[in-house]
Specification:
The protein is an all-beta fold. It has one domain: 10 Kd Chaperonin, Protein Cpn10, Chain O, CATH 2.30.33. Strands 4-5-1-2-3-6 form a 6-stranded antiparallel sheet, with no helix packed on it. The radius of gyration is 14 Å and the shape is globular. The N and C termini lie far apart (36 Å).
């Protein structure tokens, strides 16, 4: 299996998916589910130091980055400067 490694100031983020079923048991079509601005970093460029690491959960703007499909799931390449924050353990 080939691995994708981001280049330059990009990070590869696996998007967190919202539930497609309501509490009442109604399934929602994909077009009605909004995209959350958070995901888990699964790739960081090796050629530059980074404040984010693989496994970090990050926040980003709704229209940030470039969408890509990997293994049938939606991911984003996002510039580090477009990241809004990183969750930290308390």
């Amino acid at each position: 299996m080939r691995k994708i490694v981001p280049l330059g100031d990009n990070v590869l983020v696996k998007l967190e998916q919202e539930e497609s079923k309501t509490k009442g048991g109604i399934f929602l079509p994909d077009s009605s589910i909004g995209e959350k601005g958070e995901g888990v970093v699964i790739g960081v460029a090796k050629d530059r130091p980074s404040l984010v690491n693989i496994g970090d959960t990050v926040l980003f703007g709704t229209y940030s980055g470039h969408d890509v499909m990997i293994g049938g799931k939606k991911h984003k390449f996002i510039l580090k400067t477009e990241l809004l924050g990183v969750y930290e353990e308390e």
